[in-house]
Structures are given as structure tokens and as C-alpha cells.
Predict the structure.
Amino acid sequence: MQLKIYNSLAGEKEIFKPILEGNVGMYVCGPTVYSNVHLGNVRTFLSFDFIYRSLTHLGYKVRYVRNITDAGHLTDDGDVNNDRFVKQTRLEKLEPMEIVQKYTVDFHKVLDMFNLLPPNIEPTATGHIVEQIELTQKLIETGFAYESNGSVYFDVLEYNNRGLNYGELSKRNIEELFANTRDLDGQGEKKNPQDFALWKKASPAHIMRWNSPWGEGFPGWHLECTAMSTKYLGETFDIHGGGMDLKFPHHECEIAQGKACNGASPVNYWMHANMLTMNSQRMSKSTGNYILPMQLVSGENDFFEKSFHPAIVRFCFLQAHYRSVLDISNDAMLASEKGFSRLMEALKILNSITPNDEKQSGFSLEDWKTKCYDALTDDFNSPVLIAHLFEAVKFIFALKDEKETISAKNLEDLKSTLNAFVFDVLGLQNIEENNNEKLDQTLQVLIELRNQARKSKNFDLSDQIRDKLLAEGIELKDGREGTTYVLN
Ligand code: AMP
Ligand code: ZN
């Protein structure tokens, strides 16, 4: 089985060859934790969760690193008023690290709700200041960077003069960019407007600051990803992912920093996930066209007519390929809900099918499995994979109606393959089972509380718990093994 990955750097699908056979090093740009993640952000992280799950399912041992940007994420002008953390700190009257903690917790909660697996390493920018200072020093020593008024900039023209190509990922002709902007922009501290900050001098208003050989300041956003990815995955690693909007300048700068520091391209396969739009407009906080994940799940919003379970949102997202734009709308969500229910129903039916080894089936399990794996290994094509899963769903309903048969061996194979694709690879959750699990956990808590009440001779309370549950149709039965319950 050959895995093909669309490499943004090559502009085409390539056969995936990891640096170390059977192993994958994957880095994905994480969130800037200065406010709640919106549903658009979730789509990007979910795309890479699916890719991570797929790689693992295909047998790779993956080291998945996704960072937390918790130091100044500046616009390149270095204006403190544009620093997202500083702005939010003022707005919420909190310490910068309180802002970081608040939104990191929110981020984890949201991803957990959509059943995303945690990365293997989740490094923070503030935890890697030393590494960023070291890289900056190295870039100054090798002549790729220069200090100017307490800040340090990457010298893009110098980089290109040495035969390297700033613009290779975003396919921008940097010569032209230089020609167009050199005279227009006030260059200030920079030699050229394209030069980007590796280290920024902190103004008196800037709260997050660290000592450095160039005075007090804070690291540039692009450098943190170079520092953390190469620290944990090596100077050249297999996969780097992020949203499409990060291609330029963020990832372009990462390539330049990596090549200038180590003389080698830092990443073999660049993967970019496409954007989420809502009612055909890109989801973004700045335009107001956004929804928070909890608002979709709770139904408290002006865009959707009802609430949707996170598993249905996840299913909806995966019905589009990660490189395609996905438009979320009320109709799209309703259609996903229908599809999801049918898929779950088929899985339930599968458990009650009686195999028949006598009759020949019209459904070729082997062909079906091949088609599923072909989709998965064709640049992680989730919509095609899901379409194949629905061929199996159709077959399962035919089994139920006794219009089809399946042998015992194939039944087991179909069950385990379908379950693996649905739960391990797509990461969906069975809503019904989950609810049952929750109910069971809740009842165990109530039984425990009733036991405690009885021990302390509070029979009033213990009887109340028993009677109120009975009124809801839940009968508690006390036996030698303890208390059990029956749902009437
Ligand atoms: P940020 O916290 O702004 O750095 O963004 C975190 C991630 O969300 C980045 O990888 C962005 O590319 C991604 N992102 C932002 N807006 C959208 C959107 N509308 N659809 C999908 N991904 C997005
Ligand atoms: Zn990054």
C-alpha cells in the first residue's frame, strides 16, 4: 500500500517516504491562546487529527507535535497595540499568563468535545525562549540576520542573494515584491520591508518580555515554530501542517529560518488544510461571521435552527476533503445528522446479523476494503472513504432485509473493519452508547450516595433517592452483591 500526500511545496501529490521507515514526525501550528477558538479553527485541527489517526491506523508510529502560541503573536509592524495578548490583557484586566491559561483550557475542552486525540508533545512558545534566542544568535553569526535598535530581523535579500528562494512555498516572486514595495514602505528599523522579526524589542507597554543579548524583548512568531519543531522532530522532519492562511508569510519564514540555520529544508511534506466558511463567507472573528463550537452544540446561536451533537459536526467536517473549502450551513448539518444516524444504525444492525456460510454473497468484502484503503491513502480522502462506508451500510440494510447473506468469517471482518474506520480513523462516537454510559455513571453515583445515607442512618434521604428513581422508571434492587438497577 502506497500513501500519497499532496505536498504544497511541490504543488502535487507525492508518494510518502518517511525519513525513518515506519515512523512519522509531524508538526502542526497550534492556536494563539488569546481568545476562544471558533469553529473555523476547529476544522483545521480536526483535519490534522484525522490525518494523525489515519497515519496511526496505517501502521506508522507518529510523533505528533502541536504547539501553543502563548507569546506575542504580532503583526509584522511590531506595534504593541497590535499584539493580541496585550490587547486582550487590557480588555479582560488579567495577567498575560491568566489569559494564556484561560484560553488554553478552553482550547483543550473544545478539542476534547470533538474527540480529537491529544498530540504527543504540546510545547509552548514561552517555554522555549532560550531556544529562540539561540537560533537568533546563530542567524546573526551566519549573516542571515541583523540587529537594529534592540530588535533582530531576518535579512530576506541576503537569503535570496545566497541562491536561496524566499517565496518557494507560496510561489511568490520575491524579486517583484521587492521592486514594488521598496520605495513605498517606510522601512524604519528594517533593511527591507520583507524582512521579518526574529526578536522584537519590548516597548515600555509590553508586559511579556524576556532578557536577551539585545536587551529586553520577545520572540517573533515564525521563529517559535522553527525552534519547537526542530527541537522535537529534528532539523528535517516529515510533515508540517497548518491552515492554508499560514502558508505566507508564516511557513515561508519557517523554511527560510530552517535553511539558513541548518543548510537543509526543514520539512519534506507541507500540508495545508482549507478553510471553513459559513453561509459561503469565510469564518473569521474579524468579520463577525463566526460561531463558537459550544454555540453550535448548545443551539444558542442565530445561524442554525437546532443544536447538533459534536459527533455530527465532526462527521460533517469529514465529509469534505481537508484541501477543499467546507461551507457549513443549516441544511448541511441536517444532512449530516441524517447520514450519521444511518451509519450508526447500520453498526447496530451488524451486531444482530446471523451469518450464513452456505450462500454466496454479492458483496465483495475484499474489493470494498481495497477501495476504502485506496481512498485513505490517496491524500487522506475522507469524503470518498465515507462514500465507500455507505456502500457497506447499504449492504448491511440488505442483510437485515434478508436480501443478502454473509459468511461468519466475513461478518467478523466487516465488523472490525467498519468499526476501525468509523471510530478509530474518522474518530466518530456513538451518541446513543455514550448516553447509556453517562446514565450508568450517574446511577452509580446515586447508588453510592444512597449507601452513604443508609450508613449514616439517614433513611429519609436513602428512601427519597429510591422512590424518586422509581417514579422515573428506575428500580433499585438490593442484593448480596450490592445494589443494581433495572430500567422499566
Ligand atoms: P490562530 O489561532 O489565529 O493562529 O489560528 C489557528 C488555526 O486556525 C490556524 O491554523 C488557522 O489557519 C486556522 N483557521 C483560522 N480561520 C479558519 C477558518 N475559517 N477555517 C479553517 N481554519 C481556520
Ligand atoms: Zn507555526
Summary: The pocket of adenosine monophosphate (ligand 1) is lined by residues 29, 31-32, 40-41, 43-44, 242-243, 245-246, 275-276, 282-284 (CB under 6 Å).
